[in-house]
Specification:
The complex is a heterodimer of chains A (200) and B (383). Chain A is of the alpha+beta class and 200 residues long. Chain A has helices spanning 9-12, 16-39, 108-122, 179-184, and strands at residues 43-46, 51-57, 60-65, 71-74, 83-88, 91-98, 127-128, 132-135, 141-148, 153-160, 167-173, 193-196. Helix content of chain A is 24%, strand content 34%. Helix content of chain B is 75%, strand content 0%. The chains are: A alpha+beta (200), B mainly alpha (383). Chain A: The chain crosses the membrane at residues 16-40.
Chain lengths: 200, 383
């Protein structure tokens, strides 16, 4: 009985075509998007006093306004409603909204510990110091402390929303930032505002 | 052609009972074994070298993907080790069940084991690692060009369907080239595509679980992982990555069956299947139809599309194999209905149970050979 051949030469050569196309697509996907992303300008100027919504949860929304001129938003490293990264000279400011799970929601001290763990996940040498109470200009209480790693030293701030539905976490630092640089923008940490649904 | 009534392995086909292949034939000198068609792996330039190259590329991309995942996740796993372990346990359970299920749905017989394992491995490492890099870069592009608010709403829908579906597709194609006998038609493409998607889904579930721990403030991490798993396996698992890449894989199967040089109709069919997979992913990630009911609708829609594609190609696959089995049966002197019934796993098992235990292993081997040859014959001119 005659079997059709598997090895017709015109077809057998075709195996190289899908192989080449597949490999090229995989390389191109990573290379092309990375190159395009690197070529595009990635910062957006923020004017002093501009209100930036950080996140919302439960019945509250948190916003922030940067009191100084000279801040810029790292658009590529930010996600609306979740995390924002700002730069001002050598100073880096990261603001993140976290939404704890579990009922009842964890208190500020537990969130502080969790914030320390997240910092260690990003940098094994990062450590959060003991927290102290801090109050926003609005009067909302939170915690603040020193954030220290092998390469930099800065401050960490945590504000749980009034109903505990979410929290705003901030880190202020920068590898080349001096103490004077950080002190010049320290009041940023107090500009977080929580707005209830009825107040909007 | 009729089987010998005294042959204990010859059964009433109305009861769908199938004999193992007879070792003798009434009035004939014995079974005529059909020489297996020349395996595609046996030609160096045509198949062996591309297959070897493909395996090298698969290994390279898998290592790169694994390295990327390790680099991205190592810190989080180190700090949230218990949560990561929990995610791994859920992932292992998903993987084992999915691996069994998707290999089981291939008609006639399970797909080639090494090809199945490589498909899953590609999904777990190369596709997820590559997509992680590509998604991050493309999300950055959207944020910079369209703004944060737009990207927050539409970024996932404009990023993941393109990068992730293509990375999974690349894996299916590479597996098809590395294992040319394992992917010879749309059904094989569907099954191997589902396995690539399964691997992708398992790793992505782990990544999402760990991301949720961070988004929950690093507190009650186990609860965050459980919530993520329930959402992504129980609620959306029916219509997520496996379904999308299975549909795209069927398209790859169409192309592979035509020796990668398809006619216009086949090429359009393959393209439509790939675009359907991308469209399924796009709708799944888009902010349209948000909310619980909307998500359930999207999941069911994807599931229905995958099922429709599967049953359409499964029917054709079984028909071809049954036809080939009938011809095999004729050549070895087996009743047509008995030979055709060998296309079903259950019928083969039932037939084996009727064979004396001492001969069962050999009968099983003969069955396997006959089915394998029938599949070779059914898809021979398609390789």
């Amino acid at each position: 009985m005659v079997q059709p051949s598997y090895t017709a030469p015109d077809r057998s050569r075709n195996q190289w075509l899908p192989l080449g196309v597949a490999a090229a697509v995989a390389v191109l996907l990573v290379a092309a998007w990375s190159l395009l992303n690197a070529l595009l300008p990635g910062t957006e100027r923020i004017r002093a006093g501009d209100e930036i919504t950080i996140g919302e949860g439960g019945g509250y929304r948190a916003s922030l306004s940067l009191p100084q001129e000279g801040w810029s938003l790292d658009v590529g490293a930010s996600r609306a409603g979740q995390s924002y990264r700002f730069h001002r000279g050598p100073v880096d400011l990261t603001v993140t909204a976290v939404t704890p799970v579990g009922d009842p929601p964890p208190d500020a001290e537990r969130l502080w510990e969790g914030m320390g763990d997240i910092a260690r996940a990003g940098d094994p040498t990062a450590r959060l110091g003991d927290p102290e109470v801090i109050t926003t200009e609005q009067g909302v209480e939170g915690l603040t402390g020193v954030l220290r790693s092998r390469t930099e030293e800065g401050a960490a701030v945590l504000y749980p929303s009034p109903d505990g539905g979410f929290a705003v976490e901030m880190t202020l630092g920068g590898r080349d930032a001096t103490t004077a640089d950080l002190e010049a923008v320290a009041d940023v940490a107090r500009t977080v505002v929580f707005t209830g649904e009825g107040e909007r | 052609m009729s089987g010998a009534p005294e042959d204990p392995r010859s059964v009433d086909t109305r009861a769908a009972r199938v004999p193992a292949q007879r070792t003798s034939r009434t009035g004939a000198p014995g079974p005529r074994r059909i020489p297996a068609p020349r395996a595609p792996e046996r030609t160096l330039l045509g198949y062996r070298l591309p297959a070897l190259t493909s395996m090298v590329l698969i290994a390279l991309f898998c290592l790169l993907g694994l390295g990327t995942l390790t680099f991205q996740l190592a810190g989080t796993v180190r700090v949230f080790f218990a949560e990561a372990a929990l995610g791994l346990v859920f992932g292992a359970a998903t993987l084992l069940f999915g691996f069994w299920l998707f290999r089981r749905i291939r008609p006639v017989r399970a797909p080639d084991l090494p090809a199945s394992l490589v498909a899953v491995l590609w999904g777990m490492t190369a596709a997820t690692g590559g997509a992680l890099l590509a998604n991050s870069a493309l999300s950055g592009v959207w944020s910079k060009t369209m703004g944060l608010a737009f990207t927050s709403a539409w970024g996932a829908a404009l990023t993941a369907p393109l990068n992730e579906e293509l990375f999974k597709l690349v894996g299916i194609v590479l597996v098809a080239v590395a294992f040319p006998r394992a992917l010879r038609g749309p059904v094989d493409g569907f099954v191997l595509g589902a396995l690539v998607g399964l691997g992708f889904e398992v790793t992505e579930n782990l990544i999402y679980g760990l991301n949720t721990v961070a988004m929950a403030g690093g507190v009650n991490g186990a609860e965050a992982v459980v919530q993520t798993t329930v959402l992504r396996v129980v609620l959306t698992g029916f219509g997520s990555h496996w379904a999308m890449s299975a549909v795209a894989g069927a398209g790859v199967g169409l192309l592979a069956a035509a020796g990668w040089l398809p006619g216009r109709r086949r090429a359009v069919g393959a393209l439509l299947l790939v675009l359907t997979a991308v469209g399924m992913h796009w709708l799944f990630d888009s902010p349209l139809l948000d909310g619980f009911a909307g998500i359930v609708f999207k999941v069911l829609l994807n599931f229905a599309i995958a099922l429709a594609v599967y049953f359409a190609f499964r029917h054709a696959h079984r028909r071809r194999v049954r036809r080939a089995l009938a011809r095999e049966g004729e050549e070895v002197g087996l009743r047509r209905s008995s030979a055709v019934a060998l296309a079903r796993r259950r019928a083969r098992r039932r037939a084996l149970r009727e064979v004396p235990e001492a001969e069962r292993a050999e009968a099983g081997r003969v069955q396997e050979l006959m089915v394998e040859e029938a599949e070779d014959r059914a898809f021979a001119n398609r390789v």
